[in-house]
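pasting for the record
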Amino acid sequence: MVEFIPTRCNVSYATRFSRLDLDCLPTRVNLVRRGVHVESSICPICSSCEEDVHHTLFCCDLARLILRRICRWWDLDIQDWCSFQEWLSWFQSIRLPFMVKFLLEGSLL
């Protein structure tokens, strides 16, 4: 049973953005690069290619499905982003009130 739910997350969005941009997330490819033993660097969800940041967030079938559903939920045009920079550019260009955009940002990240 959860007795305490923090009102704020300790990791700010700016920190997440910089970690994504610098390819520092612990994907299988990055773990192998750091010398961590993993059975395979192939994505365990779709088994189609190596699990790097780009694949995990934008190319994996599950990631694409989730992003499409979030866009449909928020009544946004469905996009096929090929990189974090494309996603960030799109996100900065959409016109929404600040709080709505903040909530959408939390849904997407």
